[in-house]
Amino acid sequence: PFAPFLYTLANDGASIINPAVLKEHAADDARGFLAQNTAGSGPFMLKSWQKGQQLVLVPNPHYPGNKPNFKRVSVKIIGESASRRLQLSRGDIDIADALPVDQLNALKQENKVNVAEYPSLRVTYLYLNNSKAPLNQADLRRAISWSTDYQGMVNGILSGNGKQMRGPIPEGMWGYDATAMQYNHDETKAKAEWDKVTSKPTSLTFLYSDNDPNWEPIA
């Protein structure tokens, strides 16, 4: 049994797809077909798609649940976060997704949009490759964990709009453990762990995605 099964189905990466359509285009597990088409079961269906520009959704007449209130939903692809913020401020769009903190602060100053703040389940992890030297040394990983300035990143990069996680599951999500062990910025403990490292590296390679503007200042 997989305990989070129902929860997983509610995520876009595991949404239910019509099996008959998959079998019809099963040459590559329907990857090629699904890259250009949809075969979902939700309240909306795809009417048109301009790649890299816009998607238009309309109500799905075959949806068995309550009918959606909107007759049409337009999803615009706007790469620049500043452009998303400006269009939201002008009233050209109703919702802007994934605005970085600096753009949210700009919105607050404009006083044209009501910025509501509330806890979210968005998380950011720093993954350590513990199967490869030098990070296969537990002492080194602990030294990194104790030396990381968690609150400094929250305050300096996120302008206080965030909190350090306690364990791998964020507060508010099923499975969260409020008693889980939590590292903090402690240079004394970091040095003690560093002194135990057998093979001390002179540098580490940090790979990050440019999709999130917060990663570069963290690096």
From TrEMBL:
One of its GO terms (biological process) is dipeptide transport. Keywords: Signal. GO terms for molecular function: peptide transmembrane transporter activity. SUPFAM superfamilies: Periplasmic binding protein-like II. Residues 1-219 form the Solute-binding protein family domain. The keyword Acyltransferase does not apply. The keyword Ion transport does not apply. GO terms for cellular component: outer membrane-bounded periplasmic space. Belongs to the bacterial solute-binding protein 5 family. This is ABC transporter substrate-binding protein. It comes from Escherichia coli.
